[in-house]
């Protein structure tokens, strides 16, 4: 678990950030968390599914970026190729943390031992006058917005779960060599249940701004075909012939 230190110009005036810090973060992430406000944009490039946080059991909205752990098919030769960049990638390696001076407020924290930080190379975090750089100012605005986005996303996740709209699925991968591994622990929207909801419930979902993300999540599953093409372009990976989505019988969405 990373240890965060409050970012201050007094302590970190000479700290610099690697220009490819976002890529360093993303290239090993086969799933990336997103906010509900990001679903429609993210769905244009990646499949979006729910997973459970292993630490607290809460639902997490995630963009699915690779069939293999520790890899991300949208990072190609050090370049991010998706049409949208998730917020947690834009803000890395800066995080919100409880202020050490006031437990009721937040401040920006960093893991100052992370290799993206240096005192000799990369972009300055603070200007010579100790003011935040343009990049840090942008990150600060995104992190401040994240407070409300996190709350909104948790409310969305809980409401969708309460309506029984989560369906556990396995992704069965058929490789050209005959091997057939299965990816489990993923949940998507149960389209059949969504269609049987009352008009009153559907209108409520629309009023809350939840209906569009639900539909975008369903459509995003077609992006699995994009992942197969990206996967098969990499000669070091075991080629995929096809995939199949199966309803999981060993997982509960409650």
Can you describe what's shown?
The protein is of the alpha+beta class and 254 residues long. It has one domain. The protein is 32% helix and 24% strand. The chain contains nine helices and 14 strands. The strands form five sheets. Strands 1-9-8 form a three-stranded antiparallel beta sheet, covered by helices on one side. It has a three-stranded antiparallel beta sheet with strand order 10-2-11, with no helix packed on it. A three-stranded antiparallel beta sheet has the order 3-5-4. Strand 12 and strand 13 (182-189) form a beta hairpin.
List strands and helices in order, with pairings.
Layout: E1 5-6, H1 9-12, E2 16-17, H2 21-26, E3 31-33, H3 39-42, E4 48-52, E5 59-64, E6 75-76, E7 79-80, H4 87-91, E8 94-98, E9 106-110, E10 117-118, E11 123-124, H5 134-162, E12 166-175, E13 182-189, H6 191-195, H7 199-207, H8 211-220, H9 224-232, E14 240-247
Antiparallel strand pairs: 1-9, 2-10, 2-11, 3-5, 4-5, 6-7, 8-9, 12-13, 12-14
Pfam families: SapC
Protein name: SapC family protein
InterPro entries: SapC
């Amino acid at each position: 678990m990373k240890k965060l230190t409050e970012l201050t110009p007094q302590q970190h005036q000479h700290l610099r950030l690697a220009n490819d810090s976002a890529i360093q973060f993303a290239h090993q992430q086969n799933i990336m968390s997103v906010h509900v406000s990001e679903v429609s944009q993210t769905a244009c490039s990646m499949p979006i599914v729910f997973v459970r946080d292993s630490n607290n059991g809460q639902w997490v909205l995630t963009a699915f970026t690779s069939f293999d752990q520790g890899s991300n098919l949208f990072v190609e030769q050090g370049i991010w190729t998706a049409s949208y960049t998730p917020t947690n990638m834009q803000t890395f390696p800066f995080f919100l943390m409880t202020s050490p001076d006031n437990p009721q407020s937040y401040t920006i924290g960093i893991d100052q031992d992370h290799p993206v930080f240096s005192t000799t190379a990369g972009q300055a975090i603070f200007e010579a006058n100790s003011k935040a750089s343009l990049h840090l100012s942008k990150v600060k605005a995104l992190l401040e917005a994240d407070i409300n986005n996190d709350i909104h996303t948790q409310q969305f996740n809980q409401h969708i779960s309460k309506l029984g709209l989560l369906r556990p699925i396995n992704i069965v991968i058929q490789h050209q060599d005959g091997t057939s591994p299965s990816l489990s622990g993923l949940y998507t929207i149960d389209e059949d249940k969504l269609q049987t909801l009352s008009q009153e419930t559907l209108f409520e979902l629309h009023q809350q701004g939840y209906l569009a993300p639900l539909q975008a999540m369903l459509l995003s599953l077609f992006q699995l075909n994009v992942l197969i093409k990206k996967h098969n372009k990499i000669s070091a990976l075991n080629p995929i012939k096809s995939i199949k989505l199966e309803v999981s019988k060993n997982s509960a969405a409650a």
